[in-house]
Amino acid sequence: MDYKRARKFPKNKITGKFPSQKMGRMCYWESGLERDFFLCLEFDESVLEFFEQPPKVSFLLNEKERKYFPDVMVQKENGKLFVEVKASERLQNPELVERYRAIRQEASKRGYPFYIVTEVEIYRGSYIDNLKLLFRYSREKADEQVRVAILNILTLHGKLSIRELIASLILTGCERPLPAIYSLLWEKVLIFSCLENPISLETVILIPAKGAEILEMSTFASWHDF
Question: Which helix (H) or strand (E) holds 20?
């Protein structure tokens, strides 16, 4: 997918690329916080698309027209959002907060909610560490035979720890079952109770009930508002 950012990154900034499967391309970040936020968006099923450095927003501040380039534009089923990814300590600056209030007001006029997300929202317990672990296996699709065996075993037992599930799979002749389990957790074919708790061999997993809403920590649950 061809995508042109509205703003180029300064040459003296630390930047990098995130391999988004959802977007089918590399997404460019200019901080570790942005990189990890992209991972949250990648995992969040309510997010259809996300675009880094989208077109500018013009706004008035102290009777002067200013321009602002959002860090990310997020497309959800119910509309678009503008997001600024910022370290929480930066929000102690009254002038910056005033600027963001003016931006939010202008974005609201256009029908786009504006939010700020900080490390407080992104680094919740072991949430990011868990996503990084699962993302490593997201391209390693489970072999169909292993997939069926996993689903059959969990259908029979209801729920098992990862350790117990691996033991059952080995008895059926499955090799390297752990990557398949991680892949299915990323796909949400399997779930576990709390994404804030670190994934371990003792983590209990199960098949989500048919038609039931999958409870997960939404990326949008507690964004900073002001």
Answer: strand 16-20
Q: Global pTM?
A: 0.85
Sheet order of strands, 47-52 included? 47-52, 72-76, 79-85, 114-117
Top-tier CATH class for 16-122: alpha beta
Q: What is the pLDDT of residues 162-203, one digit of tens each?
A: 999 999 999 998 888 999 999 999 999 999 988 899 999 999
CA 110 – CA 212 distance, rounded (Å): 34
**Domain map of the chain by residue range?**
16-122, 127-206
Q: What is the spatial distance between Cα 52 and Cα 31, in angstroms, rounded to a whole number?
A: 12
pLDDT of 120 > 60? The answer is: yes
Residue 106, token pair as written in the block: 């202008």
The amino acid at 80: K
The residue type found at 174 is: C
Q: 106-113: which pairs have CB atoms within 8 A and are 24 or more residues apart?
A: 106/57, 106/58, 106/59, 106/60, 107/57, 107/82, 110/57, 111/79, 112/73, 112/79, 112/80, 112/81, 112/82, 113/79, 113/81, 113/82
Supply 128's token pair. Answer: 């990011």
